[in-house]
Structures
1.
Amino acid sequence: MGYLNHTILSWVLFLPTIGGGVILLARSHRAVRWTAFIFSLATFLLSLHLPFHFDSAQTGYQFVQNKAWIPAFQIHYFLGIDGISLWLLPLTTLLTFLGVLVSWKGIQHNVKAFYFLLLILETGMLGVFASLDLFLFYVFWEVSLVPMALLIGIWGHENRIYAAVKFFLYTMAGSLLMLACIIWLYNLTGTFSFPGILAGLRAGTFHLTAGTEMWLFLGFFIAFAIKVPLFPFHTWLPDAHVEAPTAGSVLLAGVLLKMGAYGLLRFNLTLFPRASQRAAHWIVILGLIGLIYGALVAFSQKNMKKLVAYSSVSHMGLIIVGVFTFTAIGTQGAVYQMLNHGVSTSGLFILVGMLFERRHTFDLSEYGGIATAMPIYAGFFLLMVMSSVGLPPLNGFVGEFLLMLGAFVARHGYGITAAVGVIVSAMYLLKWTRDTLWGEIKRPANLSLADLDFREGFVLGVLGVLVLVMGFASPLFLNKVSTATRANLAPYAAQARPEANRLAELFLAPPARVPASAPGGRR
Amino acid sequence: MSLVPAEFYWRILPELVLAGFGAVLMLIEGGGRAGNRGRLGAYVALLGSLLAFGAVFIQAANPGDAFQHMFRVDGFTVFFDFVIIGATVVVVLLSMDYLPTQHLERGEFYALLLFGTVGMTFMVGSVELIMIFISLEISSISTYVLAGYRRHAPRSTESSLKYFLLGSFATAFFLYGIALVYGATGTTQLYDVARASLTPIVGGGEADRVLLLAGALMFIGLGFKVSAAPFQVWTPDVYEGAPAPVTGFMSAGPKAAAFAIFLRIFYVALHSSGHAWFWMVYVAAILSMCLGNIAALLQTNIKRMLAYSSIAHAGYVLVAFAALGPEGISAVMFYLAAYVAMNIGAFAVVSHFAHREERYVDVKDYAGLGFRFPVPAFCLSLFLFSLIGVPLTGGFFGKLYVFRAALDAHLVGLTVIAVLNSALAAFYYLRVVVFLYMRQPAEEIAAPPMTGAFSLVMIACVAVVIWLGVFPNRVLEFASRSAAQMLR
């Protein structure tokens, strides 16, 4: 077991790459699909090793692997995870596996290239969450960019090229700034190792002046804010989502957006605490604007995929609010909501994709009364929407509840605005459900729609079970997160308000459970 | 004891091999049967350049000065010899496909290629200004002729003429600079110039000013050779008109060699006036990056686009140049090595798709080629991503090194401009990838055969680009060691 624990991250990371190589050798479309299926499933199962052998009491990184890669530049192949990144890896592997399944019938041309890119993308995304060397982190960050741009550009819908190029250029511009900041940090500290830099900064070995810290903070922040995407950097997202094939949307919403929030949490908050505090108020305001603006725009959408895309802008805004409250409870909520959003929004995109495969349109006015012909589909639809709304006791509720508590503790105004935003998001989601599932049947085609087949039912079933489990048994997940979030907030401990600590004890200290019915104040 | 010790010959062995095979090629061209002479010439040239490549190892094993300190073998020389002769090998392989397609197959093409390479390798090894000038001329004259090799195509002739006229003009500047250096210091040996410039024989501040003027004149001459703005005007027309493999060659070999002597002259001989010429480099770097990238955005002809992109890349190299230290030198060296591999690779694919009379060199012609010709298209995308600077490619590591050197020298403004330019550049490289994979073709280009020579070129370029991107450590260490050696 010792050997496995020291190499498991590499296995999880590169199993998909190996799968990609095998796919290139496959002869038929059928063989390509099954190879992708087997490798993505194997990667998922292997990644489950991580939560099962993760020691939730231990501080610091686990499953660490550290080898010199480019000694001339002090670059290391340095992997490791803590509570913040722990669940993001299985989330990624699961969503990739489901992505393989949802593309089974939808992707009919250039099948080999599609699955090849999908698996390479998986390696890139996993690497982002597992890297502890800033250089390595940047490499994986970019590696995840290229396949996604190609997935959108080659297998997308009508406007795909515009969307792909916009996606690539936006992200590239942000990440080049980040690269410049990484090199700057390297020149200041002489290392790319994230724990090394962090220890040096905290011990006072390296000192950043307030100005330098602010510039570095901004360089990282813009790269991550584009990825999240935080208002006003979000304009690439609706285009990318609408044009992407279903699997692309699933991974984009489910994983790539999380890379931004993860980066903020992991790097900005810890490396630049003073700059974070100076900027926090404005960033929270941007997050709140995103939350409400995204919800309002989603409310007025006629295109279903755009609606879900803007709902992502809205949800991610709330997550950023949680991150920049610097409270244990808000951070926990942010980490948990990242997972929830990954599950429920992916579910919504998959649902939209299934409708598209049947009717070839995303236009809301084309649908209505679907529930008559597709009762099982309607059931899953309702479940995912309710998870996204944050209905107790589903998973979304836990995350949103923690996030709003965090916001309230930090400043009452934040909490009140966040609550308003959450109400608006309930409005558009419920309206969308009503217009799609129920109401009169305007198009005769909607009468004869086929309900879910086994493959589709399986995909949605997996997500549905997760929605329930993550809602009812949230401590199972949160207990493994708390040590890392507390450590992450160490620089802010001095400023923490007493009520924040009390709340944290109430809701987070194991084995305390999040009560299924909220003690007032939700909406 | 003979007058010339044997190891002097070992030190110039690659040049001797190249010159010898060049001469043999001329003889074959004169005699022999018509018809298969070209093919034979190609194999002789391939053998010659491969042997020369091997000879660099022997050269590397015999470091030191030769011929009255006019020539020096150090890590720097060896590094650039590998790059330049490697580029020549690749171009010979490419021409084996290209010339028959264009009905241009003649032995003298290869002879010119080898003689040009002799000039370039002598350039990087010379530490004496007259030697540098002579070898610069050898390399230039060969390239002038090669540029006009498609002599029935008006564009090619125009290209050759423009290159020749502007090129001779620029070399004249360079020569004038040499004369002034001699006037100020009484020597033309670079390391002696460096010493003399500290204790000038003419006396006082006069010599400083003369040296600065000399530096400015040589800067113009070399700026032309590396196509740095504002001396870049010739580049697009010449690159467009020249045969595609020759364009690939011009953007690689002569450019690397010119940067090598650029480094040696300015970092060694004119070291004492660094604070003054620093601003020339600074301004040229900004101009080259901005002009090159903005103009490249507007191009639809791939060769022209790559020409402007090569101006922009000269700008990135100048950014490292402006760092004024050993870090800067090794960054320039690494960047050039990566640049040569990816750029020749890109031109190789362009010449592969070009067809007779270079009909298909527009971006639109590349629509839909990605899935019809997966291997060349994939390689081209890889080279383009490397030119953008995506990680795990040599281009990325080169950029990283350049930015790092510049930031280390506190050139924050320059680095920011370079970063913004790289983001801008992504747009036009990406457009080619978009056409390759995401657009439907208007006209179906017939499949050019994947010959053995072309496959070898692809394997070599892809391998180098990936190797420099994933395991750059050895090259990095070699470059920084040689940079330290060169300054001694």
2.
Amino acid sequence: MFLEQLSGNLVQGVVLGSVYGMATMGLSLIFGVLKVVNVGHGAFVMVGAFVALFFFNTLGLNPIFAIPAAFAVGIALGLTFYYAAIRKLLHAPELATLLATFSAGVLLEETIKMIFGSEFRGYNWDVGNIDLVFTALPMSKILAALGSVLIAVLLYVWFKRTRAGSAMRSVVEDSQGARVCGINVDGVYAMSFALGIGLTVASGVLLTMFIPVGINPYMGGGYTLKAFVIAVLGGLSSPYGAFFGGLVFGLIENTSYTVFALIPGVEPFALTRFLSFLILLIILLIRPTGIIKAK
Amino acid sequence: MLTVQALESGYGAMQVLWHPELEIEKGSITSLLGPNGAGKSTLLETILGSVRPWGGQVLYENRDITFLSSHRKVEMGLALVPEGKHLFPNMTVYENLLMGAYLKKAYEHREESLDIVYTLFPRLKERSRQMAGLLSGGEQQMTTIGRALMTKPRLMMLDEPSQGLAPKLAAEVFETIEKLKSDIGLTILLVEQNADASLGAADYAYIMHEGKIKASGTPDEIKASREIREAFLGV
């Protein structure tokens, strides 16, 4: 019985983990290229969740269509935010970009609250279940996981095979070197920031498959914290590292949930959050460059 | 080919360039000498635009390019071999060179540019599959010059290319620079600490001090002036 539950949780962990991974790629991309920590990360995830909600409840459309829409919303938000604030702060002390991204998050939360209100909402996209021997998984979650893997692969190919991708890689490696090659470094910064926010907002759509009634303007905070743990697991500046960091994190969260649930008198969900920060602390102490070797 | 007039720039509130004036003849090697902190690197960076000019003028092939962005200037044939190399350490030598041909026109000519680079530095052809971060200092400097050549430049600015190299390798760098002029027909602006070697290769030289041009002349004139040597070159 316990083993069955554990293997069920492993599968659930991989499924959730791949979505977590995808939800952290944007954060790592922005940090890798611009060395800016997006403290407002979770708020952009939240915007994506509301895009999904709007598509499903108001337009009556399948959440799959909400993914490209959320990506486009993210690109637009990212470009606006980059040119309005980040660009001028790149050479300022780090605190400036931390405050800017933090306040962008607050601005988004309050704007969404004004439009949609602050109550918890949700939607139920029922596309059936898949029955494994030891566990049943909603098809919507499986699709979210597949979508995450697909997006991660597309990003990888884009990085390795396109001109814009190679410009971005060169800026990550040495921005001055990129500049003397004739690369428009400021343009690459803008593009990376927009792409990072686009991915983050799109990930918000995928995450809604896991929170049937958890959509709320203030839902992002938890995701910001998780994303930091995942990004550090993956070496902080590599989007692929982040993806695998997400897988590991999903597994840890789900497995520990099962184990904690066996302990009488504790609230397992709260303990999983404690555990994730314990992990963050340990990694930062022993291997601050991340446990997955970033390439 | 390149005229710098009353250029001003700096970092933050600190002004580094105080109206240096210089003129670079097409097809020549111009040496820019001066003590550490004279603003030589800043001058090159300001010409390229990676440090933003505050005022003054940069004329390139009779066009005012002062405030154009760096990538536009690279496109027009201005190349910088920066101090400290700035290679892409996790890319191979070949990938580094190819990044030099990033812009459209340079990309169209990448095969012939690559031939030129490999003829100049046969060593790079042997090392083409190696990660740039694992090369020796001399090989890295070749790669940096090669990458700059891949942009199809007409004017190449080199910032301390012999820095940190053993005397024999440094001498090779100066030979290379003379070849860039004679075989490929580039115009060169060379910043160096190594005054003797630099003057040996140059057609004309400028002495920079505290953000200004303090003296100029042919290498023979500079060498003949005890005053200049003692005041600015410390030799």
